Amino acid sequence: MTMRTTSLGTTGPQVSALGLGCMGMSALYGEADRAESIATVHAALDAGVTLLDTGDFYAMGHNEMLVGEALRTAPAATRDKALVSVKFGALRDPDGNWTGYDGRPAAVKNFAAYSLQRLGVDHIDVYRIARLDPDVPIEETVGAIAELIEKGHVRHVGLSEVGADTVRRAAATAPVADLQIEYSLISRGIEREILPATRELGIAVTAYGVLSRGLISGHFTRDRQLAPTDFRAFSPRFQGENLQHNLNLVEALREVADGKGVSVAQIAIAWVLSRGEDIVPLIGARSRERLEEALGALDVTLDEADLAAIEKAVPAGAAAGERYPQAQMAHLDSERRRV
Questions:
Q1: Can you give the residue ranges of the NADP-dependent oxidoreductase domain (predicted)?
Q2: Total H helices, total E strands in the chain
């Protein structure tokens, strides 16, 4: 397999067609194997994956340190091609509770200083606030990132989970490379207003949750017991009748995948890839086995008949349950309905 590349928007860098989301290697999906996580990052780099995504609040800095270790121990030939995307701004207490977001310019620069140290790099390639701070205009937050760019600490401005209006305001302040936002067969809300706005402005989309946290991977089962530290245990789409409904969708998708001779995960990832070269799926693989499966999606070609079959199996809006618990949905600028 030869890794395809694409531009991260009209102002961003060249990146691999798939990126690696590293969150699950440290947090929110239960216990993870550190050695396997680092081996997975190395395998991704070896396969030509250049975009690594993390957040400074994933296990309170643990994930950044893990990514930093993986980069430090990778061969120079692949390490030097790696680009790191960092989300910041989420506030947490010692018990792991979420307590809000901070997008003030002074906070932006403070967060960046700590991330540079934990990652062991001299610059962050794409820097973005994880959620819009309702008390700070996006212009101020993006303006602070622009100042970090001027000083060489950051290369590009990114956005995360914001709506079309906020995207436009941010882009009027400084060039924006990409918007990171959930996008999958069962999370297609960006198609209404957000995706048209990013395309109008030449901003790429880095799509996370392309397998809906494993729900549409083809590997999740009805009787699976989730660890208390696995946030999916509290996710509406993984609850009761919602879960059964959603797994029924997966079985319909499995029929299409079987007809193509590919896995459910591969056809779900291939569907996101088919949405346009301006969309870069982030694969949340925590093992080399899952990474290899995900990379196989690059070899899956979907024709019109395939796309029609996928749409029939999993129509837009077919999923049961919101993508986050209600308290977290309230923090999503991308989910606010404008009048």
A1: 18-313
A2: 12, 12
Q: What is the CATH number of domain 9-215+273-299?
A: 3.20.20.100
Q: Are 198 and 205 in contact (CB under 8 A)?
A: yes
**Size of the chain in residues:** 339
One-letter amino acid of 251 = E
Residue in 65, 56, 3, 77 with CA at minimum distance from that of residue 37: 65
How high does pLDDT run on average in the chain? 95
Return d(Cα 133, Cα 80) in angstroms, integer. 33
- Residues annotated as catalytic are 58
Q: CA–CA separation, 46 vs 190, rounded Å?
A: 32
Domain boundaries, the chain: 9-215+273-299
CB contact set of 26 (below 8 Å; sequence gap of 6+): 32, 37, 58, 59, 62, 63, 66
Confidence at 1, pLDDT banded by 50, 70, 90: low
